[in-house]
Amino acid sequence: MELPPLVLDRDAGRPLAVQLAEGLRAATTDGTLRAGDRLPSTRALALELGISRTVTAAAYEQLLAEGWVQGRRGAGTFVVDAPGPAVPVRPAPAPAPRPVLLDLSAGRPCTEVIDRAAWRRAWRAGADLLADSEPDPVGLVAFRGAVVENLLRHRGLAVAADDVLATAGSTAAIAELARILPAGGRVAVEEPGYQRAVAALRAAGLVVVPVPVDGAGLVVDALPAGLAAVYCTPAHQYPLGGRLSAGRRLALVERARADGFLVIEDDYDGEMRYDVAPLPLLAALGRDVVVHLGTASKLFSPTLGVGWAVLPPAVRGALLDLRDRTGTRPSLAGQRVFAALAGHGDLARHLRRLRRELATRRSAAVATVTAAGYRPRGDAAGAHLVVELADGPTERAVLAAAADRGVRLDGLARHHTGAIDTAGVVLGYAGPTRAELDRAMAVLREVLAG
Ligand SMILES: Cc1ncc(COP(=O)(O)O)c(C=O)c1O
Hints:
- By secondary structure, the chain is of the alpha/beta class.
- The protein has helices spanning 16-29, 42-49, 53-66, 116-126, 141-155, 170-180, 195-203, 246-259, 282-285, 313-326, 332-343, 346-371, 392-404, 434-449; strands at residues 38-39, 69-72, 76-79, 102-103, 164-167, 186-191, 207-214, 217-218, 229-232, 262-266, 290-295, 307-310, 384-389, 407-408, 410-411, 423-428.
- Strand 2 and strand 3 (76-79) form a beta hairpin.
- Pyridoxal-5'-phosphate is lined by residues 107, 169-171, 194, 233, 238, 266, 268, 295, 297, 302, 307.
């Protein structure tokens, strides 16, 4: 049997298997292939079309699943008698080619500096986890030991392994904490702030109260009475970038004790700071009222899916009880990988590389923004800075102009919980490669100057 000409376009942006399945399906509906016709073997067709056998096998599987063909043991694959409704299935129109966007949104990790060999070695070490290992709601001892070391060396917090709980990352931990706070309780969040935290709190039925921030982070004096908790990012306010001043740190902890609320300290990028002295963690000032959250997402990558929490004993007990009742626990694999990275000294080496790289990138970003006539904000720490703009329309215009030139910028508008009172762009410089960042900076210079 002669097959109809099948045209496969490697540049079409759609998988070859999908294109092949479409071509064969069209041939059965337009009569080129008839009921009972035998298709060539996947191997023969692959050879004829110059493509891999995985592609032909995937296309055949698709047609089998849809009922256009059927397999007969030992005989091959045949077009069926009644291939479902006799309506020709029109291939979906190919999506219009989109310009490749260099993504400068904040929050992406700097994976370019990850030592691939060390990363693979750690995953191999993670792979000897036995399938019948016991689920562990607290976290692996080796992982918690690595966290203890990291907190002491890089965040100045002395804790014991028993004080640490493994989490599935900061946002997942916020969602867990939200479920043990009093139902319907009021939780203060920074405005602008981290909207995934806001969503996690709201999803648990809590009432979110936005509180203003300024150049020194959360305005502690503006906290209302009657709070169950305060969520904040003291090391590098997300997204505006202020560092919570020492005075405000003390005031917040004192206020938490006096009013009986819990402080959630999201230390998402606390390992990075430039030309400024370290400030004590809130947890170092008030272990009795502060839940400290750290994550491997910015240090390495969110693909690890791990983070850690240091909590007051009663909160820790309540969280473990929640995990027990709901059968939830953090995955062990990411913890194993993180522990292996720390155990081999790769974590320390990586951190040194990451800090150097981010310091260079930050200088480049600051230089670009300054050259365009703006004063960057929040650049003393972390991996993003903010360029304040006059108003919302200007923000939207800058975002659109950058997108036209292939650069995705992040506007401040989407980081607000209530009324939008600050306009600007949040410039994440960790995510792209260095070469991409250079290109993006050239675009940014033009767009800001325009
Ligand atoms: C303020 C803040 N906290 C936490 C996270 C994410 O951490 P995780 O991946 O551990 O949930 C982000 C990610 O962008 C963030 O911006």
